[in-house]
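Minutes, project check-in
Item: structure for the 68-residue chain
Input as provided by the requester:
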Amino acid sequence: MLSHVPMYFDDIELTFGHRYAGELFAIHEFNSMSSTVKVDVWRGIQNGRLPDSPWRRKMYLAHGLEAI
């Protein structure tokens, strides 16, 4: 597996897009069950890029912890 895999979650900003349902809950559930791969917000994706694009706020990375 690659050490970082980009992921796009399109439903995280909807009314039901809270961490207790939908995609954010699935991410939480996945992270709690996996010790070798964790999914988190892609921090820094907006750095140096103009203009701000809403889709960038929906980008996450799967981090392969064993590959680090």
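Outcome recorded: The beta strands are 4-8, 37-41, 59-64.
No further action items on this chain.
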